[in-house]
Amino acid sequence: MTGRELFRKYKFIIRILEKIVGMFPSKFLRGIWTILDLSSGKFGILMRYLIIKNLSQKCGDNVYIAQNVELKNVHMLKIGDNVSIHRGCYLDAVGGIEIGNNVSIAHQTSLVSFNHTWENPDIPIKYNEISKGKIIIEDDVWIGCGCRILANVTIKSRSIIAAGAVVTSDVPSKCIVGGVPAKIVREL
C-alpha cells in the first residue's frame, strides 16, 4: 500500500492525532522531533508529520519527511499535499519557503532562504547582516539529490532540477535545469 493510500485510509485517525499533538507546546514538539529522528518506521514518519503539521505555517496531506532532515525556522514553512523530503535535507525557512503539491525533494538537498551580505568591511562577513529571500517551489517539481536552492528563487511547475545543481535564479515551467549555476538543459 502506498503512502498516499495509507494516508487516505487512516485520515480520520490522523486528524484526531493532529489535534492531540497540537496541544503540546512548540518547544516540546521540537525536542520530540530530535528524538524521532532515530525512528525510520511508520511511527516515526507519522510523528514527524504530526509535528510539522503543528509547527509550520501550512502543511498539506500525505507529507513524508525522512530521518535526518533538518528544518530551521519552521514557522515560515508552507508545504502542500503529496510532498516528500528525503534523508539528509536541510531547509532554513527564515526568508520563507513555499512548497507546492506533488513535489519530491531528494536526499542531501538544501533550501536556504537567506544570503550573507558583505557591505560592512569593518566586520567579518559572517557578522554582516543577512538578506532574506523567499523560495517558491510550485506544483509537480522533482528536485534531484544534492541540489542547492538559494534565496529569491521560484521553481515553476512541472520542472526537474538535476542532481547536484545550484539554483540561483528562477526556473521556468516544463524544463530540466542542471549545473553550477543551474541552466536549462532541456525542455519537457
UniProtKB/TrEMBL annotation:
One GO molecular-function entry: acyltransferase activity
Record bears the keyword Aminoacyl-tRNA synthetase: no
Enzyme nomenclature, EC number: 2.3.1.-
Record Gene3D superfamilies: Hexapeptide repeat proteins (2.160.10.10)
EC primary class: transferase
InterPro entries: Hexapep, Hexapeptide_acetyltransf, Trimer_LpxA-like_sf
Keywords: Acyltransferase, Transferase
The keyword Transmembrane is annotated on this UniProt entry: no
PANTHER family: ACETYLTRANSFERASE C18B11.09C-RELATED, SIALIC ACID SYNTHASE-RELATED
Family affiliation: Belongs to the transferase hexapeptide repeat family.
Name assigned to this protein: Acyltransferase
Organism per entry: Geobacillus thermodenitrificans
